[in-house]
Write a structure and sequence with these properties.
The protein has helices at 2-27, 33-65. It has 86 residues and is an all-alpha fold.
Length: 86
């Protein structure tokens, strides 16, 4: 549990640091604003496409793992005195 909190804190800190760095970089960019915005728009579309693809991959993997043909890990219909089947 504690390790999970450290991981979440690390990811949050990395994301926050990345956002602060991005804002700082944009504020000190040597290129004109229009060029920077066009570049950011193009990069954003690339990120959108990659994210959509990853979501589709994860969704497919989850569907495969919980497909109806698989047997359940636990028998929830067992009586309270019986140990769960694994």
């Amino acid at each position: 549990m504690a390790k999970e909190r450290h991981t979440v804190a690390f990811v949050f800190g990395a994301a926050l640091g990345g956002a602060i760095g991005a804002v700082y970089g944009l504020m000190n960019a040597p290129r004109p604003g229009a060029d920077t915005r066009a570049d950011l728009t193009e990069r954003w579309h690339d990120v959108e496409e990659r994210t959509a693809q990853e979501i589709a991959n994860v969704e497919s993997e989850v569907r495969d793992r919980i497909s109806p043909g698989r047997s359940p890990q636990f028998d929830f219909n067992a009586t309270s005195g019986d140990p769960p089947r694994v």
